[in-house]
Amino acid sequence: MRVVVADDHPLFRDGLRSLLEARGIEVVGEARNGREAVEEARRQNPDVVLMDLSMPELNGLAATRLISAQLPDVKVVILTASEDDADLFEAIKSGAQGYLFKNLDSKEFFALLEGVAQGEPALTPGLARKLLGEFARPAAAAHTTAEPPSQLTEREREVLDLLVQGITTNRELAQRLIVSENTVKYHLRNILDKLHLQNRAQVVAYAMRQGIS
User: Fold this and answer.
1) Residue 135 scores a pLDDT above 80
2) H or E, element range at 213
3) Which domains are assigned to the chain?
4) Which of 163, 144, 155, 117 is nearest to 211 (CA)?
5) Which of 93, 147, 182, 198 has the most crowded Cβ, counting Cβ within 10 A?
């Protein structure tokens, strides 16, 4: 895995670089602000950008939007001290593949980071519940149930239903659908393309807003 680290604190960047490299992860670039993060992402085309939120010149959310729009294959994971729910929701809307706290246990951090390489969202169970709860409220208030877009196939709708239920890893999805993980990836890519979304966290948010469950 090739990673760019974006954070305005040199000591944190140095410590994270050492931690990542000790696990065999290649740090191909560092950035002190959001503008440099976008530039490094363009230059290095990494697998993942670990993005802080509060940075000078261009903040992490703005940088995430630019990278997600210009480099859709580059996955952005927010790594922050902010426990503000509004930052979590805005990060996912901006195209982030995950949202992790800096005080996360290293074992859990690396497990989630490895999942990102497989296209899985980097969200702890607590944050995933917050995300689902936030986007479930408008649908619940309306007391209506919308059908998934008609362009989705029956199998793609099954995948969407499972995602809303909180089954988000490729392995779990494959086991529930009795197919291979590659087949799951194929269906997920079709769903993202048809709904014009960037990652499965956004798919869940979309489904909850539409009342699909």
Assistant:
1) no
2) none
3) 2-123 (3.40.50.2300), 130-210 (3.40.50.2300)
4) 144
5) 198
